[in-house]
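Forum: Protein Structure Q&A
Topic: Joint prediction for protein chains with partners

I've read a bunch of threads here and the consensus seems to be that you should model interacting components together rather than docking separate models afterwards. I'd like to see that in practice. Below is the full input, 463 residues plus whatever partners are listed. Could one of the regulars post the assembled result?
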Amino acid sequence: MTSKLLYKELRLAAHPNLFVFTFLGFLVIVPAYPYSMVFIFGCIAICATFMYGRETNDIYYTTLLPVKKRDVVKAKFLLVLAVQMVQILVSLPFAVLRVFVLPDGNPAGIEANVAFYGFGFIIYGLFNLVFMTQFFKTAHKAGKAFLLALIPAIPVVFAMEALVHFPQFAWLDSITGEEMLRQLPILIAGIVTYPIFTLIAYRISLRRFDMVDL
Amino acid sequence: MNLLSVEGLTKHYPRFTLENINFGLAQGRIMGLIGANGAGKSTTLKSILNLVRPDNGKVEIFGLDFMQNEDICKQNIGVVLGEIDFYKQKKIHAITDVTKRFYNEWDEAAYQKYLKAFSLDPQKRVVELSSGMKVKYMLALALSHNAKLLILDEPTSGLDPISRDDLLGLFHQLVQGGERSILFSTHIISDLEKCADDITYIKDGKLLKSAEKSVFIDSFQYLKEAGEDGLLSLEEIMIRSERKGSYDI
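Posted by a regular:
Agreed with the consensus. Here's the joint model:
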């Protein structure tokens, strides 16, 4: 059932820009660029697809399929998880490559290092927690859910981009082995909070969507 | 055996209440669900299917509690809630390709047969279909997975008279084996006269009567006025039950 739901999401529900934005993980090879934008693009892509779903009556269609009403929520979470994980995976080889082709680093903001991915997971976890739970209150108000989700996500974006400009946080901007080891707690925090926030979001969304009248 | 039984179905909205709807649809029967615009026909069908969450009541399909066995029940139901109004820019074949994966008993030969019978071109986008063709496409999907129960919301509206007649003939064929049943809402009374075995009448969110057609007609003969001969038709029954006076503009 999981693969059928994901196939349905990718074939019918996904807006074409979801695929384009997912592959924007490669932006970490741009010489001077705020790499946090990669995650913002990921959030925008998901919001755009949910808006597109509203225009195409996607959720109504899914509910008519021989699935449980809760599978409608499952399908959307599968899509969001797939997009976020693929985007991070796409960016990884470029993050490695840039060490060799752009050894001078990124003057615009944080490097594509261990801390960067830790912050990324935290942004996506917070986004899922607010966006998905707000969306499934109504199953159509994607714009409002997006704006509310930016409230916790944007401070993390500003923090990761701004902190590296302060000398005492220079270690956050490093790509040396020793200092990336120092960044490891941020990555662990991201890897731990992302599934927890997403799971909480899933449970709340299930409960909320169950009450929605289509 | 009842393929569908609805007991005490209730749904409250701020300005409308669907109240205590009870009826049963036996195997091999066609039931017409009638009522004026806004009477609660679509809400009833949507509540049966858990698209609208009922506040109270129980729905059993094939003897199973629908809320507990939603996915199993839906495997054997064909649903058409009006014309297709999703994925307007997608081609028919793309929608079918996804839909058929979800059905254990998808019958590709039957689907192709209906496409041909309804003159549907799978390369067309939904937006390119006329209103009647959109209903026909939904019917083709609903009829292609060996559904035992068809739940259809105004399937004949938007169809030309020939297609409507053909469709009513198809309904008859589908229930002939005695296995399948059809529940369809309509306000085209002639459809009911042609093919319904049972009638369920909802007025202002309440069940007025649910019975076999001739019993139903007999039970409303009290609406006859002095001097009128013969039985009142279904149309007369509905008009006399609903009439609140003419528009005062």
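Chain B has a mean pLDDT of 89.
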